[in-house]
Design a protein that fits this description.
The strands form 6 sheets. This protein has a 4-stranded antiparallel beta sheet. A 3-stranded antiparallel beta sheet has the order 1-2-3. It has 2 domains: 1-169, 3 Solenoid (Pectate Lyase C-like), CATH 2.160.20; 178-273, no CATH class. It is elongated and about 65 Å long. Helices cover 5% and strands 30% of the residues. It is mainly β. The chain has 2 helices and 17 strands. β4 (29-32) and β5 form a beta hairpin. The chain has helices spanning 48-57, 269-273, and strands spanning 5-10, 13-18, 21-25, 29-32, 38-42, 44-45, 69-75, 90-95, 178-184, 188-194, 200-202, 208-210, 212-220, 229-231, 239-241, 245-247, 263-265.
């Protein structure tokens, strides 16, 4: 199948129309250090003027692509940026309040510290994006995929999600006793009983945390051998012994702090093996 390709330029940025999709080809800038020698490649910095021209020039159904671009020190509040690709891009000191990111890809993008109050991410690809310290109050994330998104210290009051929102709700059951699994040193897999009164939480990944658990069994990967103890991969002083309880007194209840205190576990053996 052949496609019509039409190339044109706006402020030095190349666009390619291809089957109703605008592809933005951005050449990375050469870095020049204080000796005048060209070195590393840097992200292409995009001005608000460039973004507005791209928005104005696109036809209905087209999807401008701003991959690996840098947006700095600008006010984009209230803008309609739906159906755009901002994968691997960076937003620094940018006002993004009430911006429409519906059906956008912001995968692995950096938003740390910006205000996104009231922004619309409906059906957006938000995987592994960083929102540390962002104001995300009243954001619409219905139908969005937040797998691996970093939400540490973000303001999430009145955020709007639904059953189609992925990886925002707890991965482990919030109540009742559950079984968990974790991989330890020397490829030993520990099966844990997390009791009903244990605190437990999870962020936007399959890994979960709890405050206490009982060690039910310790086996090798193919379950042909059993062991009496296993040592943590993270804390060399933390040991799991068959039949004994383990407890973390300083368990961090903030579910969005993933790499913090607690007994880290997975909901099934295969997830633990893949760690």
């Amino acid at each position: 199948m052949s496609y019509m390709r039409v190339a044109y330029h706006i402020l030095g940025i190349s666009f390619v129309k291809n089957c109703g999709i605008i592809k933005l080809s951005v050449k990375k800038a050469n870095c020049i250090d204080n000796t005048g020698v060209k070195g590393c490649n840097a992200m292409k910095e995009i001005t608000k003027e460039t973004l507005l021209k791209a928005m104005k020039s696109r036809d209905a159904g087209e999807h401008p692509v701003f991959r690996e671009c840098e947006f700095k020190d600008m006010d984009l509040s209230g803008m309609d940026l739906h159906n755009m690709d901002f994968t691997l891009s960076s937003f620094q000191n940018v006002n993004l309040e009430r911006v429409n990111f519906e059906n956008c890809s912001v995968e692995n993008a950096l938003f740390d510290g910006n205000s996104l109050h009231g922004a619309n991410f409906q059906n957006a690809n938000m995987k592994t994006a960083a929102f540390r310290g962002c104001d995300m109050r009243e954001c619409n994330i219905k139908g969005a995929n937040l797998y691996g998104a970093v939400l540490e210290h973000a303001k999430l009051d009145d955020i709007q999600s639904d059953e189609a929102t992925q990886w925002f709700r707890m991965h482990c059951p919030e109540t009742g006793p559950i079984l968990g699994y974790k991989k330890c040193v020397n490829d030993r897999v520990v099966q844990l009983l997390i009791p009903a009164d244990a605190k437990r939480t999870s962020a936007t990944l399959p890994s979960c945390r709890c405050s206490k658990a009982k060690v039910l069994s310790i086996k090798n990967f193919d379950e042909t051998e059993e062991f009496e103890e296993a040592w943590s991969l993270v804390d060399e002083n933390f040991v799991y012994r068959k039949g004994q309880w383990v407890e973390v007194k300083d368990f961090n209840e903030d579910r969005w702090m993933d790499s913090t205190t607690g007994i880290h576990f997975w909901m099934n053996r295969n997830e633990a093996l893949g760690y």
